[in-house]
Amino acid sequence: MKRFRYLALFLIAVVLVGCAKPAPNPRGHWKDRPRATSAVQEDVKEVQRRERTVAREQNVVVKVFRELFERTVGRLDIVRKQVIKKTMVPLYKDVLDGEMPYAVERAEDATYIEQTVSDLPAEDTLLFTFYDHPAFDYPLLILCHQISGDLRLFSIVQFFSDGSYSTFSSLEPGEISIFSTNLYTDSEGNLYIDNMDTGEIFEINVVDGILKIDYGYSPDGKGFATTLTGDFSSENPDIYIEPDYADGTDLFVQTRIIADTLEPFDRANFDALRSELRPIELMPYDDDNFYEIAGRYTDLDAGKAHKADKGFSEKEFRAFIDENLDPYVTENGTECVFIDDYNHNGKLAAYVITGEDAESSALFFINEELVSTPVEKLTGEFFYYRDPKLLRAGKDAYLLLTANAGGPGITSYLYGVEDDKVYWPDISSNVQLFDRDGERFSDSQTYLETTDTGGVRKEKTIYYDYDQHTRQFIRANDEKSDAGTENIALNIDGKDAGSLAAVEKDGALYLPVGEFNLVLASYFKYPGVDREDLELYLANVGETLAEPIAGGNGDWNFGAFPPVMEYLYHYSKKHQVILSTFELMDLESQTPPDRITYLKPTHPPFVEGDSLYMDVETLSSCFVFSYQFDKNGDVLNVKQIDGDDVDDAWKSVPAKGYRDVQDFLDDRF
């Protein structure tokens, strides 16, 4: 689905104050240009001026940028000490490939929405170029969405020396977007853009460190220009300056010259101005064109991108890392640089952990073409128990990180490479203390076992073999569970409900979701549901109310018990999370909900035979009941409760702007 339009949003300028050079002297003929003079507009400007002053004092820009870094799983790099032009090139390449957003919006609910060129229709043309602007240390990336014929929308990405970037305007058309013929430049290197419908010309200047339109020209006059708000469809519209754009606009929608600021400027002057401007040449985007243009502004060899076919040497990786990243060195003296042939294809890749200390560290992936991509932020928990290290499995290699905050809880993460991208095997984050043990791999676990006298912490070891074909770690001897099924008695609201096959492992009681669902539907009371209709419904649903999703990589739908009589929940194996299918239906119908609720099981579900097994704690939050397990008598006592009495196991996160379910899951989990 299309991401949100800019109609009710404003573009985040993700920059740190002072990253750009001082703005050039403005053109003399508008140096002292007047602004809007009405009392209402002056009041708005004064409020905005005070707000900006407070924002600078509180360093709000930095706070917003760091929050954005966390929300986007570290996709924006703020930890590098040295950034050269070679760092800018991979960022621009990722933007053009749709791997990185070209713009980040902040919605009214303070959530962040990314816009990528991947959102643009495939039949449209993406044009681009680099532009050496006199006010910036690094070339700008100019993007052009050519919709059809001469209809063009422009966006400009501004890269800064700390690795951050901000964006001028959007490539996605809206109802009040302005189409342009081209971007232009003058003899001083300043930027201009035109309104294709009216012929007006607007200057794009540096305002508060970023690019904004703040002045315009027409045959009827010149003056201050910005984005306006109002009911433009009415006969006498009440139009006023959008408060967010009181000093100019970084969004080319409903942009006009403010009448109160007009200075004399006739047709002759207008034509003379247009004749002085020259259009900026653009090229269709492909790899060859990109490296040709990039080579004009950097010392990057245009043919370097193709050298990856043979693979870069370890020496070249080292040189790239030394120039672009600042590796973290642990307290034990381990430099966190891990260069290896991770997927046994004859080419090197690398993982690098950067940062001045453990608490501010971040993980980066450098692919086979020497392109660096942030993976995620780390904390001191990843260095408390043991240092990161390489783990060899079969013909492959994995970076092994172990997170532990000093208590009994330990989680191991494995990072490999597949198709020149970051790859996680299924066990990553689902094992505790993981390592090689002779010819096999072991997961040393601690768990809490409940007894009559309280909880007792116990230990056990689970062994794995490595399957080279699937590149997965398979549980030795038993691929699905480390404990067999056994019958337990069910007591539901004080009634004998027969027995059910269950599995006890990892200190938790697992139940087959579909069969347990049928039992609950038979014994729970549902106000307004006729018992005869319920029995007829149950007779027609078959033996299970949990079904695997075809092609879903282990995903399941479950929870179709009355009175809803349709699936309630979606379980994603890859992301180890449960979502509401009602909200997912909104996503699939391309009407994203405001928020999506999710539940992250403490114990990972698994499949045994044809059944999905979940622990009873997770099921109690899904099916709304309280329980007590009498381990000595193997009896599970269940009591139906009101939904308002369920503990707050479900979390809620913003969902606006996501294209589909997978986009949401990949970004959030």
Explain this structure to me?
- The chain is α+β, with helices and mostly antiparallel strands.
- Helices cover 19% and strands 34% of the residues.
- It is built from twelve helices and 41 strands.
- Strands 8, 9, 10, 11, 12, 13, 14 and 15 form an eight-stranded antiparallel β-sheet that branches. Strands 37-38-31-30-29-40-39 form a seven-stranded mixed β-sheet, covered by helices on one side. It has a six-stranded antiparallel β-sheet with strand order 32-33-34-35-36-41.
- The longest helix is centred in the N-terminal third of the chain and has 19 residues, at 39-57.
- It is globular, with a radius of gyration of 30 Å.
Question: Can you lay out the helices and strands and say which pair or pack?
Answer:
Blueprint lengths: L9 E2 L27 H19 L2 H12 L13 H13 L5 E4 L5 E4 L9 E7 L8 E9 L2 E9 L5 E4 L14 E3 L5 E4 L6 E7 L2 E9 L2 E9 L10 E2 L13 E3 L9 H10 L1 E2 L3 E2 L2 H11 L16 H11 L12 E4 L8 E6 L7 E5 L5 E6 L3 H4 L4 E5 L2 E8 L7 E8 L2 E3 L9 E5 L2 E12 L2 E14 L4 E4 L9 E8 L2 E11 L2 E5 H11 L7 H10 L5 E3 L7 E3 L10 E4 L4 E4 H8 L6 E5 L6 E3 L2 E5 H8 L1 E6 L4 E6 L10 E4 L6 H8 L1
Parallel strand pairs: 29-40
Antiparallel strand pairs: 1-2, 2-3, 4-5, 4-16, 5-6, 6-7, 8-9, 8-15, 9-10, 10-11, 11-12, 12-13, 12-14, 17-18, 18-19, 19-20, 21-22, 22-23, 23-24, 25-26, 26-27, 27-28, 29-30, 30-31, 31-38, 32-33, 33-34, 34-35, 35-36, 36-41, 37-38, 39-40
Strand count, sense and barrel status of the largest sheet are:
8 strands, antiparallel
Q: β content, as a range?
A: 25-35%
| Approximate helicity band | 10-25%
The secondary structure category is alpha+beta
Average pLDDT reading? 76
Q: Tell me how many strands there are.
A: 41
- Please tell me how large the radius of gyration is: 30 Å
Distance between the termini: 20 Å
Helices, by number, come to 12
Unreliable spans are 1-45, 47-85, 299-308, 478-483
Overall 3D form: globular
